[in-house]
């Protein structure tokens, strides 16, 4: 995952399964449990060193993990 932009241009944690996006990245086990724990701990902003105003949404990553295309 990397810090990117959501569909509205706001900073967001976005999936990057190929690890090809530019910018700072972070690793996360691709499971709902690990995702939910990271959200509860607010780990994304810290790991990705994002200190911008308005927060950092992780909804695009959550949607990716819930999508049928990602399921084994």
Describe this structure in words.
This protein has 72 residues and is of the alpha+beta class. Helix content is 32%, strand content 11%. It has one domain. The chain is built from 3 helices and 2 strands, in the order E-E-H-H-H. A two-stranded antiparallel sheet has the order 1-2. The longest helix is centred in the middle third of the chain and has 10 residues. The radius of gyration is 11 Å and the shape is globular. The two termini are 19 Å apart. This is YlxR domain-containing protein.
Count of strand segments? 2
Largest sheet: 2 strands, antiparallel
Which structural class matches the secondary elements? alpha+beta
* Whole-number total of structural domains: 1
How are the strands of the largest sheet arranged?
Answer: 1-2
Mean pLDDT: 80
What fraction strand?
Answer: 5-15%
The number of helical runs is 3
Coarse morphology:
globular
Helix and strand sequence = EEHHH
Give the N-to-C terminal Cα separation. Answer: 19 Å
pLDDT under 50 segments (min length 5)?
none
State the share of residues found in helices, binned by percent: 25-40%
**What is the rounded Rg?**
11 Å
Protein name: YlxR domain-containing protein
Region (Disordered): 1-28
Organism: Nocardioides ginsengisegetis
Pfam families: YlxR (PF04296)
